[in-house]
Design a protein that fits this description.
Blueprint: H1 8-12, H2 15-24, E1 27-30, E2 35-38, H3 41-49, E3 54-55, H4 62-65, H5 83-91, H6 97-101, H7 104-116, E4 123-125, H8 126-131, H9 133-143, H10 150-161, H11 172-194, H12 200-206, E5 209-210, E6 216-217, H13 221-252, H14 254-262, H15 267-277, E7 284-288, E8 292-294, E9 297-299, E10 304-307, H16 309-312, H17 347-364, E11 368-370, E12 376-377, E13 386-388, E14 390-393
Parallel strand pairs: 2-10
Antiparallel strand pairs: 1-2, 3-7, 4-14, 5-6, 7-10, 8-9, 11-14, 12-13
Length: about 400
Amino acid sequence: MEFDPFAPEFFDDPYEIYRWLREEQPVYHNERMGFWALSRFDDVVAAHRDFETFSSAFGVTLEQLGEHKRANFGSIITIDPPEHERMRKLVSRAFTPRAVAAMEPMIRRIQCEFLDSLMDRESFDILGEFAAPFPCEVISTILGVPEADREGVRHRTDRLLHRDAGNPNTTPDGMQAGFESGLYFYELAREKRAKPDDSMISLLCTVEVEGDDGTTHRLNDEEIASFSLLIGAAGSETVTKLVGNAVVEFYRHPEQWRLATSGEADLSSAVEEVLRYLPPSQYQGRMSLADTEFEGGKIPAGNPVLLITGAATRDPRAYSDPDRFDITRKPLLGIGLGHGIHACLGAALARIESRIAIDELSKRWPVYEVEESGLERVQMANVAGYSKIPMKVR
Protein backbone atom coordinates (compact mmCIF):
# COMPACT_ATOMS: atom_id res chain seq x y z
CA MET A 1 0.00 0.00 0.00
CA GLU A 2 0.89 3.68 -0.30
CA PHE A 3 -0.34 6.40 2.02
CA ASP A 4 -1.13 9.32 -0.28
CA PRO A 5 -3.12 12.00 1.58
CA PHE A 6 -4.28 13.50 -1.72
CA ALA A 7 -5.54 10.38 -3.46
CA PRO A 8 -9.33 10.02 -3.96
CA GLU A 9 -9.34 6.74 -2.01
CA PHE A 10 -7.86 8.56 1.01
CA PHE A 11 -10.79 10.98 1.13
CA ASP A 12 -13.30 8.16 0.49
CA ASP A 13 -12.09 5.90 3.32
CA PRO A 14 -8.51 5.85 4.64
CA TYR A 15 -9.07 3.40 7.48
CA GLU A 16 -7.77 0.25 5.78
CA ILE A 17 -4.61 2.16 4.93
CA TYR A 18 -4.42 3.36 8.54
CA ARG A 19 -4.62 -0.22 9.84
CA TRP A 20 -1.77 -1.19 7.55
CA LEU A 21 0.30 1.78 8.67
CA ARG A 22 -0.16 1.05 12.39
CA GLU A 23 0.62 -2.65 12.07
CA GLU A 24 3.18 -2.79 9.26
CA GLN A 25 4.66 0.70 8.83
CA PRO A 26 4.28 2.66 12.11
CA VAL A 27 7.19 4.86 10.99
CA TYR A 28 6.20 5.28 7.38
CA HIS A 29 8.27 6.84 4.61
CA ASN A 30 6.70 7.97 1.35
CA GLU A 31 9.78 8.37 -0.80
CA ARG A 32 7.81 9.53 -3.84
CA MET A 33 6.17 12.43 -2.02
CA GLY A 34 9.05 13.08 0.38
CA PHE A 35 7.50 12.73 3.82
CA TRP A 36 7.39 10.48 6.89
CA ALA A 37 4.31 9.64 8.94
CA LEU A 38 3.39 8.41 12.43
CA SER A 39 0.12 6.56 12.99
CA ARG A 40 0.15 4.98 16.47
CA PHE A 41 -1.54 6.88 19.29
CA ASP A 42 1.43 7.10 21.66
CA ASP A 43 3.78 8.16 18.86
CA VAL A 44 1.45 10.87 17.57
CA VAL A 45 0.88 12.24 21.09
CA ALA A 46 4.61 12.21 21.85
CA ALA A 47 5.42 14.08 18.64
CA HIS A 48 2.75 16.71 19.33
CA ARG A 49 4.30 17.34 22.74
CA ASP A 50 7.88 17.52 21.47
CA PHE A 51 7.77 20.84 19.60
CA GLU A 52 11.55 21.17 19.84
CA THR A 53 11.96 18.11 17.62
CA PHE A 54 8.76 18.29 15.56
CA SER A 55 8.53 21.94 14.61
CA SER A 56 5.60 23.86 13.14
CA ALA A 57 7.82 26.75 12.08
CA PHE A 58 8.28 25.31 8.56
CA GLY A 59 4.53 25.09 7.93
CA VAL A 60 1.85 22.50 8.59
CA THR A 61 0.94 21.31 5.09
CA LEU A 62 3.04 19.15 2.78
CA GLU A 63 3.20 22.04 0.35
CA GLN A 64 4.71 24.34 2.97
CA LEU A 65 6.98 21.68 4.47
CA GLY A 66 8.27 20.74 1.04
CA GLU A 67 9.98 24.13 0.79
CA HIS A 68 12.30 23.14 3.69
CA LYS A 69 12.50 26.70 4.94
CA ARG A 70 11.00 28.52 7.88
CA ALA A 71 7.54 29.88 7.17
CA ASN A 72 6.97 33.62 7.07
CA PHE A 73 3.17 33.57 7.21
CA GLY A 74 3.03 35.27 10.63
CA SER A 75 0.45 32.70 11.72
CA ILE A 76 0.22 31.32 15.26
CA ILE A 77 0.21 27.76 13.91
CA THR A 78 3.60 28.26 12.22
CA ILE A 79 5.39 29.79 15.21
CA ASP A 80 7.28 27.84 17.86
CA PRO A 81 8.10 29.02 21.40
CA PRO A 82 9.01 31.48 22.75
CA GLU A 83 7.26 33.68 20.15
CA HIS A 84 4.32 31.28 20.06
CA GLU A 85 3.73 31.76 23.79
CA ARG A 86 3.48 35.54 23.38
CA MET A 87 1.02 35.26 20.49
CA ARG A 88 -1.11 32.59 22.18
CA LYS A 89 -1.38 34.61 25.39
CA LEU A 90 -2.65 37.55 23.40
CA VAL A 91 -5.24 35.79 21.26
CA SER A 92 -6.40 33.35 23.96
CA ARG A 93 -8.00 36.28 25.77
CA ALA A 94 -10.83 36.00 23.24
CA PHE A 95 -11.39 32.29 23.99
CA THR A 96 -11.57 32.12 27.76
CA PRO A 97 -14.10 29.59 29.14
CA ARG A 98 -16.32 32.45 30.31
CA ALA A 99 -16.20 34.15 26.91
CA VAL A 100 -17.04 30.93 25.05
CA ALA A 101 -19.88 30.00 27.44
CA ALA A 102 -21.41 33.43 26.91
CA MET A 103 -21.63 32.69 23.18
CA GLU A 104 -24.03 29.75 23.59
CA PRO A 105 -27.31 31.72 23.19
CA MET A 106 -25.99 33.37 20.03
CA ILE A 107 -24.85 30.01 18.62
CA ARG A 108 -28.20 28.36 19.32
CA ARG A 109 -30.11 31.30 17.79
CA ILE A 110 -28.09 31.12 14.56
CA GLN A 111 -28.45 27.35 14.29
CA CYS A 112 -32.19 27.48 14.90
CA GLU A 113 -32.62 30.07 12.17
CA PHE A 114 -31.03 27.75 9.63
CA LEU A 115 -32.86 24.64 10.87
CA ASP A 116 -36.26 26.30 11.12
CA SER A 117 -35.99 27.29 7.47
CA LEU A 118 -35.89 23.56 6.58
CA MET A 119 -38.85 22.44 8.70
CA ASP A 120 -41.46 22.52 5.90
CA ARG A 121 -39.34 20.35 3.58
CA GLU A 122 -38.94 16.57 3.37
CA SER A 123 -35.47 16.55 1.82
CA PHE A 124 -32.46 18.86 1.71
CA ASP A 125 -28.66 18.94 1.79
CA ILE A 126 -28.04 19.17 5.53
CA LEU A 127 -24.38 19.95 4.86
CA GLY A 128 -24.86 22.73 2.36
CA GLU A 129 -27.93 24.24 4.03
CA PHE A 130 -26.93 23.90 7.68
CA ALA A 131 -23.57 22.41 8.67
CA ALA A 132 -21.59 24.57 6.23
CA PRO A 133 -23.21 28.01 6.62
CA PHE A 134 -23.90 28.15 10.35
CA PRO A 135 -20.26 27.80 11.60
CA CYS A 136 -19.18 30.55 9.21
CA GLU A 137 -22.03 32.73 10.49
CA VAL A 138 -20.98 32.06 14.10
CA ILE A 139 -17.26 32.70 13.69
CA SER A 140 -17.89 35.73 11.46
CA THR A 141 -20.22 37.17 14.10
CA ILE A 142 -17.56 36.63 16.75
CA LEU A 143 -14.80 38.16 14.62
CA GLY A 144 -16.96 41.15 13.65
CA VAL A 145 -17.28 40.42 9.92
CA PRO A 146 -20.20 42.41 8.46
CA GLU A 147 -23.17 40.23 7.54
CA ALA A 148 -22.87 40.99 3.82
CA ASP A 149 -19.28 39.67 3.76
CA ARG A 150 -19.74 36.36 5.60
CA GLU A 151 -20.50 34.06 2.68
CA GLY A 152 -17.40 35.41 0.98
CA VAL A 153 -15.28 34.33 3.96
CA ARG A 154 -16.56 30.75 3.64
CA HIS A 155 -16.18 30.47 -0.11
CA ARG A 156 -12.65 31.89 -0.10
CA THR A 157 -11.73 29.35 2.59
CA ASP A 158 -13.09 26.49 0.47
CA ARG A 159 -11.07 27.69 -2.50
CA LEU A 160 -7.90 28.10 -0.43
CA LEU A 161 -8.05 24.57 1.04
CA HIS A 162 -9.10 22.72 -2.12
CA ARG A 163 -6.52 20.39 -3.70
CA ASP A 164 -6.59 18.65 -7.05
CA ALA A 165 -6.33 14.84 -6.92
CA GLY A 166 -2.79 13.68 -6.16
CA ASN A 167 -1.43 17.23 -5.88
CA PRO A 168 -0.41 18.66 -2.48
CA ASN A 169 -0.03 22.20 -3.82
CA THR A 170 -2.49 25.06 -3.56
CA THR A 171 -4.30 25.67 -6.84
CA PRO A 172 -3.86 29.04 -8.59
CA ASP A 173 -7.43 29.87 -7.61
CA GLY A 174 -6.66 28.89 -4.02
CA MET A 175 -3.62 31.19 -3.96
CA GLN A 176 -5.78 34.05 -5.20
CA ALA A 177 -8.37 33.26 -2.52
CA GLY A 178 -5.69 33.31 0.19
CA PHE A 179 -4.45 36.69 -1.00
CA GLU A 180 -8.00 38.07 -1.07
CA SER A 181 -8.71 36.78 2.44
CA GLY A 182 -5.51 38.20 3.90
CA LEU A 183 -6.18 41.60 2.36
CA TYR A 184 -9.80 41.55 3.53
CA PHE A 185 -8.92 40.85 7.16
CA TYR A 186 -6.05 43.37 7.10
CA GLU A 187 -8.44 46.12 6.01
CA LEU A 188 -11.03 44.96 8.55
CA ALA A 189 -8.43 45.11 11.34
CA ARG A 190 -7.59 48.68 10.36
CA GLU A 191 -11.28 49.59 10.41
CA LYS A 192 -11.79 48.05 13.87
CA ARG A 193 -8.75 49.82 15.25
CA ALA A 194 -10.12 53.14 14.01
CA LYS A 195 -13.71 52.42 15.11
CA PRO A 196 -13.71 49.82 17.92
CA ASP A 197 -16.75 47.70 18.71
CA ASP A 198 -17.35 44.57 20.82
CA SER A 199 -15.98 42.13 18.21
CA MET A 200 -13.03 39.78 18.62
CA ILE A 201 -10.96 41.71 16.10
CA SER A 202 -11.48 44.90 18.11
CA LEU A 203 -10.46 43.01 21.25
CA LEU A 204 -7.31 41.78 19.52
CA CYS A 205 -6.47 45.39 18.67
CA THR A 206 -6.39 46.28 22.37
CA VAL A 207 -5.20 43.23 24.33
CA GLU A 208 -1.68 43.37 25.67
CA VAL A 209 0.53 41.03 27.66
CA GLU A 210 3.75 41.54 29.53
CA GLY A 211 6.69 39.58 28.18
CA ASP A 212 9.45 37.88 30.12
CA ASP A 213 11.58 40.99 29.65
CA GLY A 214 8.93 43.21 31.25
CA THR A 215 7.92 44.89 28.01
CA THR A 216 4.28 45.11 26.90
CA HIS A 217 3.26 43.50 23.61
CA ARG A 218 0.31 44.13 21.31
CA LEU A 219 -0.68 42.59 18.01
CA ASN A 220 -0.10 44.62 14.86
CA ASP A 221 -2.59 44.69 11.97
CA GLU A 222 -0.72 42.04 9.98
CA GLU A 223 -0.78 39.65 12.96
CA ILE A 224 -4.48 40.31 13.54
CA ALA A 225 -5.22 39.67 9.86
CA SER A 226 -3.24 36.41 9.94
CA PHE A 227 -5.00 35.22 13.07
CA SER A 228 -8.42 36.23 11.74
CA LEU A 229 -7.78 34.35 8.50
CA LEU A 230 -6.75 31.27 10.49
CA ILE A 231 -9.64 31.34 12.96
CA GLY A 232 -12.12 32.16 10.21
CA ALA A 233 -11.02 29.13 8.21
CA ALA A 234 -10.62 26.75 11.16
CA GLY A 235 -13.83 27.95 12.77
CA SER A 236 -15.75 27.23 9.59
CA GLU A 237 -14.24 24.04 8.21
CA THR A 238 -13.65 22.09 11.42
CA VAL A 239 -17.19 22.40 12.75
CA THR A 240 -18.73 21.87 9.30
CA LYS A 241 -16.93 18.56 8.88
CA LEU A 242 -17.53 17.51 12.49
CA VAL A 243 -21.30 18.09 12.31
CA GLY A 244 -21.51 16.50 8.86
CA ASN A 245 -19.65 13.42 10.08
CA ALA A 246 -22.00 13.22 13.06
CA VAL A 247 -25.10 13.26 10.82
CA VAL A 248 -23.77 10.41 8.66
CA GLU A 249 -22.51 8.26 11.52
CA PHE A 250 -25.68 8.63 13.58
CA TYR A 251 -27.67 7.50 10.53
CA ARG A 252 -25.39 4.47 10.13
CA HIS A 253 -25.69 3.71 13.86
CA PRO A 254 -29.38 4.25 14.70
CA GLU A 255 -29.00 2.79 18.19
CA GLN A 256 -26.56 5.61 18.96
CA TRP A 257 -28.97 8.19 17.59
CA ARG A 258 -31.67 6.77 19.85
CA LEU A 259 -29.37 7.30 22.83
CA ALA A 260 -28.77 10.89 21.73
CA THR A 261 -32.43 11.73 21.09
CA SER A 262 -33.71 10.04 24.27
CA GLY A 263 -31.36 11.92 26.57
CA GLU A 264 -29.71 8.69 27.72
CA ALA A 265 -26.29 9.86 26.57
CA ASP A 266 -24.32 13.00 27.29
CA LEU A 267 -24.13 15.00 24.06
CA SER A 268 -20.69 16.31 25.02
CA SER A 269 -19.50 12.69 25.05
CA ALA A 270 -21.18 12.22 21.68
CA VAL A 271 -19.11 15.08 20.27
CA GLU A 272 -15.93 13.51 21.66
CA GLU A 273 -16.78 10.19 20.03
CA VAL A 274 -17.35 11.81 16.63
CA LEU A 275 -14.01 13.59 17.02
CA ARG A 276 -12.37 10.24 17.80
CA TYR A 277 -14.14 8.19 15.18
CA LEU A 278 -13.83 10.65 12.29
CA PRO A 279 -11.70 13.67 13.21
CA PRO A 280 -12.20 16.53 10.72
CA SER A 281 -8.47 17.21 10.62
CA GLN A 282 -7.00 13.83 9.75
CA TYR A 283 -3.33 14.79 10.06
CA GLN A 284 -1.04 17.66 11.03
CA GLY A 285 2.30 18.46 9.43
CA ARG A 286 5.61 19.06 11.22
CA MET A 287 9.31 19.28 10.35
CA SER A 288 11.72 16.94 12.14
CA LEU A 289 14.70 18.81 13.56
CA ALA A 290 16.56 15.83 15.01
CA ASP A 291 16.87 12.09 14.37
CA THR A 292 14.16 10.41 16.46
CA GLU A 293 13.68 6.72 17.23
CA PHE A 294 10.25 5.11 17.49
CA GLU A 295 9.20 1.50 17.73
CA GLY A 296 9.37 0.46 14.11
CA GLY A 297 11.95 2.88 12.81
CA LYS A 298 13.76 6.22 12.92
CA ILE A 299 12.73 9.54 11.43
CA PRO A 300 15.82 11.45 10.29
CA ALA A 301 16.26 15.18 10.85
CA GLY A 302 15.23 17.63 8.16
CA ASN A 303 12.14 15.84 6.89
CA PRO A 304 8.41 16.63 6.69
CA VAL A 305 6.38 14.46 9.07
CA LEU A 306 2.63 13.87 9.15
CA LEU A 307 1.08 13.11 12.53
CA ILE A 308 -1.98 11.10 11.52
CA THR A 309 -4.69 11.87 14.05
CA GLY A 310 -7.26 9.79 12.15
CA ALA A 311 -5.11 6.67 12.51
CA ALA A 312 -4.11 7.36 16.12
CA THR A 313 -7.71 7.66 17.33
CA ARG A 314 -8.49 4.18 15.99
CA ASP A 315 -5.38 2.56 17.49
CA PRO A 316 -6.35 -0.63 19.38
CA ARG A 317 -3.36 -0.06 21.65
CA ALA A 318 -5.21 2.96 23.05
CA TYR A 319 -8.90 2.15 22.53
CA SER A 320 -10.97 -0.97 23.13
CA ASP A 321 -12.83 -2.00 19.96
CA PRO A 322 -11.73 1.23 18.23
CA ASP A 323 -13.79 0.74 15.06
CA ARG A 324 -17.04 0.72 17.05
CA PHE A 325 -18.92 4.03 17.17
CA ASP A 326 -20.08 4.38 20.78
CA ILE A 327 -21.15 7.74 22.24
CA THR A 328 -21.12 6.28 25.76
CA ARG A 329 -17.42 5.44 25.46
CA LYS A 330 -15.33 6.67 28.37
CA PRO A 331 -13.22 9.51 26.96
CA LEU A 332 -9.47 9.11 26.66
CA LEU A 333 -7.06 11.95 25.95
CA GLY A 334 -8.82 13.92 23.21
CA ILE A 335 -6.58 14.77 20.24
CA GLY A 336 -9.30 15.24 17.62
CA LEU A 337 -8.77 19.01 17.72
CA GLY A 338 -5.01 18.87 18.05
CA HIS A 339 -2.71 18.43 21.03
CA GLY A 340 0.28 20.10 22.63
CA ILE A 341 1.15 23.76 22.23
CA HIS A 342 -0.69 23.94 18.91
CA ALA A 343 -3.97 22.46 20.13
CA CYS A 344 -6.87 24.32 18.52
CA LEU A 345 -7.48 27.65 20.26
CA GLY A 346 -11.15 27.44 19.37
CA ALA A 347 -11.60 23.84 20.54
CA ALA A 348 -14.10 24.79 23.26
CA LEU A 349 -16.10 26.81 20.75
CA ALA A 350 -16.10 23.94 18.24
CA ARG A 351 -17.30 21.52 20.91
CA ILE A 352 -20.14 23.82 22.01
CA GLU A 353 -21.26 24.45 18.43
CA SER A 354 -21.28 20.72 17.68
CA ARG A 355 -23.10 19.79 20.89
CA ILE A 356 -25.82 22.36 20.22
CA ALA A 357 -26.12 21.17 16.60
CA ILE A 358 -26.67 17.54 17.66
CA ASP A 359 -29.17 18.71 20.26
CA GLU A 360 -31.19 20.84 17.83
CA LEU A 361 -31.14 18.15 15.13
CA SER A 362 -32.37 15.54 17.62
CA LYS A 363 -35.28 17.76 18.69
CA ARG A 364 -36.48 18.18 15.12
CA TRP A 365 -35.73 14.85 13.47
CA PRO A 366 -35.56 11.83 15.77
CA VAL A 367 -35.87 9.79 12.57
CA TYR A 368 -34.13 10.68 9.31
CA GLU A 369 -32.42 9.09 6.32
CA VAL A 370 -29.20 9.89 4.53
CA GLU A 371 -29.14 9.12 0.82
CA GLU A 372 -25.70 7.55 0.81
CA SER A 373 -25.53 7.35 -2.96
CA GLY A 374 -25.61 11.15 -3.02
CA LEU A 375 -22.84 11.74 -0.48
CA GLU A 376 -19.94 13.83 -1.75
CA ARG A 377 -16.61 14.43 -0.04
CA VAL A 378 -14.20 17.35 -0.05
CA GLN A 379 -10.65 17.07 -1.32
CA MET A 380 -8.68 19.49 0.85
CA ALA A 381 -5.36 19.94 2.60
CA ASN A 382 -5.40 18.64 6.20
CA VAL A 383 -9.23 18.49 6.27
CA ALA A 384 -11.54 15.57 5.46
CA GLY A 385 -15.29 15.22 5.45
CA TYR A 386 -18.40 15.74 3.35
CA SER A 387 -19.32 18.50 0.92
CA LYS A 388 -22.87 17.19 0.37
CA ILE A 389 -25.19 15.13 2.59
CA PRO A 390 -28.66 14.53 1.10
CA MET A 391 -31.11 14.02 3.98
CA LYS A 392 -34.76 12.92 4.10
CA VAL A 393 -36.95 13.55 7.13
CA ARG A 394 -40.41 12.43 8.27
